[in-house]
Amino acid sequence: MEGTNPVNKKLVAALSGGAALVLALTGCGGGGDDSKKKLDDWAKNVCDQMQPQVKKIQEANSSIANVQNEEDSKKIQQTDSTAFQANADAYRALGTSVDRAGAPPVKDGETSQKNAVKALNDLSTAYTGLKKRMDALDTKDKAKFAEGLKSIATDIGKLSSRSDEALKKLQSGDVGKAMAKQPGCQKSSVTPTPTKK
């Protein structure tokens, strides 16, 4: 049975990469030094604002996963388009949160912060572009639609790895430890949808 299924699964796999990098940012390693009050305050400020946005991204990606076996191109288009818009809004809000928090009080904190804000804003812009491309796909032509989905999935894959670096730098070392102590940045506070292989 030919259709869009295998391609939509590829799209889901690519999106999982994007979700993973946000979870990496919100689920940093354990421990930390309680004497670093300034850093803890910074982490609390960022993490409190991040939690609802991370939840939105997970819900959006989950909705795409739910239509991965869907045969109706129109339904896939509508679901994916809505999810891409939700992701664009959430990444923009995350970028604003990190920007407003200022630089974390650590060595090279300002550089890490600026790079992370740029990465999040770039992701937001990219998802807005993907939404436009998704909306423009021809749902009446299955082959063309599948080709369009494939191209979008490839671009999401590239996007995730590019933004990953800046986000990893932001949450490395002491910043990561401080963020890990905040309830808003603990993985347990956001329940990811299990994906079936």
Unreliable stretches, pLDDT < 50, 5 or more residues? 26-35, 188-197
Mean residue pLDDT: 79
Find the count of extended strands (DSSP E, 2+ residues).
Answer: 0
Helix fraction bin = over 70%
Order of helices and strands: HHHHHH
If helices are DSSP runs of H or I spanning 4 or more residues, what is the number of helices? 6
What is the radius of gyration computed over CA atoms, rounded to a whole number of angstroms? 18 Å
Based on helices, strands and strand pairing, what is the structural class? mainly alpha
Strand content: under 5%
Largest sheet data: none
Large-scale geometry: elongated
> What is the rounded distance between the termini?
19 Å
Biased composition (Polar residues): 185-197
Protein name: Small secreted protein
Organism: Streptomyces triculaminicus
Region (Disordered): 172-197
Describe this structure in words.
- It comes from Streptomyces triculaminicus.
- This is Small secreted protein.
- Helices cover 74% and strands 0% of the residues.
- The chain is mainly α and 197 residues long.
- The protein has a domain of 131 residues.
- The two termini are 19 Å apart.
- The C terminus is likely disordered.
